Amino acid sequence: MSPRDLRGLLPPEPIEIILDAVDEGASGQRLSFVLPHFPGPLLPMLRDRGVRFDSEMLPDMSGVIFHVDIP
Amino acid sequence: MQAIPSYDSAPPLALPVRFFMAAWVWLLLLAGAWIGTADGGYPSPALWLPLHMLALGVLGNVMLGALLQLLAVVSALAFPRPGLWQHGLWGCWQVGCAALALGFAGGLSPHWLQLASVALLAAMGLLVWLWWLLWQSPAQDSSSRGLRLALLCLLLTLGLGVAQLGVFGWGLSWPLLSLLPLHRLAAQGWVWLLLVAVAQVILPMFLLTPALPGWWQRWASPGWGGLLLLAAALSLRWPDGGWWWLAALPLPLCGWVWGKALAHSRRPHEWLPRYWQLGLGLMLALGLAFIAGQWQDSDWLRRLQGWLLLPGVVLTLCVGMLYRIIPFLLWLQLRRGVKPQQKVPSLQVLLPEARARQGWRAVCLWQLCGVAWCLAPGLWLLPALAGTLLALLLGWHYHAAWRCWRQGTQPVAKAVPVQ
């Protein structure tokens, strides 16, 4: 599944969308999002939920792909 | 192996907010500082009073608060002892500002200036440590590199300012005429390099512009810093050469880069771009005022240059960013501590867009009144009244946002089943 592009949304909309997706997702599911930058403020909230995450830079450096693994 | 930044150490909400609130108090107090500026003479303690209340009290507090927040989010800087910054840096900064203001208000009263030098030196010590932490941070992005240079310029500004206090307060025989232009150049470095570094993050994040060009991200801070260094060296060698234009040389380019990014914003009709457009207009006017300063040396032009830089460009951008950052920080705090059944109020509820637009109109009025004062210093009452109006408006808006945040932090009452 291609990552959901959240660029073009004003903060905190991307944070809300990712948290909602995590809360509603199935255990073991891996979700991916495209963001304009590394989502520093989101990380503590993901850690509180026990969610693991990693990220990679887009090839053209215009943003990051952010992956979350729902526990 | 290169270390990977850890972005988990965001400072507590109280850290940046404390600085922002102090800035508001200084803006309110600033109204009383204009009274001595009626003769418009510069340099004079009467003009240094509002200048330093604005530069250190209002803008210094906002910029320090934003810097501390940004260092955590962008440069992954940990704040293991937030109390040290929350009380130590904040307290030293406020005591230093207050003592400096009282020293200038008392016509260079040595005791107050001595106290100011001690407090600002203590603040400087903490900022040296902050700079060291930032230097050691593994974050190597262009914004972090720019923040390092900006913080270095702040340290130079403080050091040169404290050295001048050594002359006025402690009676040391240091070369004041060399220290003053260097202090002004270093202050410009702190302001511009911070804005350049912050804009690289803020424009794409909050104004949804494309990323700024790679060459700008890479070279803007070191290039601008290099020009300031050159201007400083030339000012020392040929003091009457009027080398200020070197510091202003990147202004048109910076305005073009930011303006081009704003033109491609995905939300051009939002309220925040208006603040940036006003800031860009003032920046253009500042560039013209610097050019005019090469041909004409007059008091009103020097006042105008000072006004367009600090109360003009910087204050406009600071007020705009506070309208975005304060509700965002409040929201973030609420969202982290959210309990089941609790609903987090949106940014729009915390600080409605209409209020940010009111703030913009108050800033426009402030600019008009300030320019009028530059042309005719006898009209000092105009910036005093416009500044008070702006401070009262901001105070009302912040208080409403705080009340909304307080309601959001209250525990939800359990529903009682109907028998």
From TrEMBL, chain A:
Superkingdom in the source lineage: Bacteria
Domain DUF2249 positions: 5-68
Name this polypeptide is given: DUF2249 domain-containing protein
Cited Pfam families: DUF2249
From TrEMBL, chain B:
Keywords recorded for this protein, A-Z: Membrane, Transmembrane, Transmembrane helix
Membrane-spanning intervals of the chain: 12-35, 55-79, 91-109, 115-135, 147-170, 190-212, 219-236, 242-263, 275-295, 307-332, 365-398
Keyword Transmembrane helix in record: yes
Transmembrane helix listed as a keyword: yes
Protein name: NnrS family protein
Source species: Vogesella oryzagri
The organism's taxonomic lineage, starting at the top: Bacteria, Pseudomonadati, Pseudomonadota, Betaproteobacteria, Neisseriales
